[in-house]
Here is the input.
Amino acid sequence: DAATLNDKQFYIDYIIAPIAPLCPMEVEDGLILSKAEAASDGPVYVYTFTAIASGDIDATPELVAEMRELFVNDLKTQSQYTPFLYEDMAKCGIVYTYVYNGNDGKEILRVDVPVADVIK
Here is the structure.
């Protein structure tokens, strides 16, 4: 369906649908994926550290850049399996957002990764 290929909401729902019902879920020891939700630009993944408070981590620009690089590389790996899907998402302006909170519920850091940056 040609209309679907340029439908940002379609892609956001497609990405979030399989994960959202599973939340919260432990992704590794001490880290929970609290929720996966749709924002206007793309999917938002909210993680919570179970043993680390927000004041225990200093979200320096270097840490944010390092995290962003990890997310870009992970998405590049995923995009190799369905490059056309990621090209279409890039055209729609999809942005993946990753949010990390401390066990006190306060945000530690937020990383935005436009799909356009992934397929470069």
